[in-house]
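Fill-in record for RNase H type-1 domain-containing protein.
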Amino acid sequence: MEFYKVDNTIMFFSDVSKTEIGTGCSYYVFENGIKLLEWKGKLETFHTVFQAELMGLNEAMIRESQGYEITKIWTASLSTVMAVLDPHAPHQLVRDIQSLLTQNRNIPVRWIKAYVGYRGNEETDTLVKKGITEGVVVKSLKPRCELKQHLQELFF
């Protein structure tokens, strides 16, 4: 298991937040402890925290594939890390991320414990709260479970 430490690699930190007014996702990119880039996304209230984590990770992978060489990705979402490592994951967004990771083999996705003072993680936590109201609008379909529930309400 690899533990978090500040080094000379380019590190990406992702985070999400969900409140009654919306859901946000964000990431920060650091090199040698210096912030290089930040991004925040605004999602609909129906998006789950898991979806938001995946969307933030996907945005970072897209950025990386455009030539921004992220060498480590840290997320406080263990479920996201496990989903990305699962070769049989049914979620389309997970498969999209896996495809991007396959193209960029040198990028490990790692879990980091939240709320213990890691600088990148704490700054991302602050940014994501702004993302709920100020972020770039990220469009995505409703989760399958919500669509299923809506159809049941319509027909039964």
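KEY FINDING: The chain has five helices and six strands.
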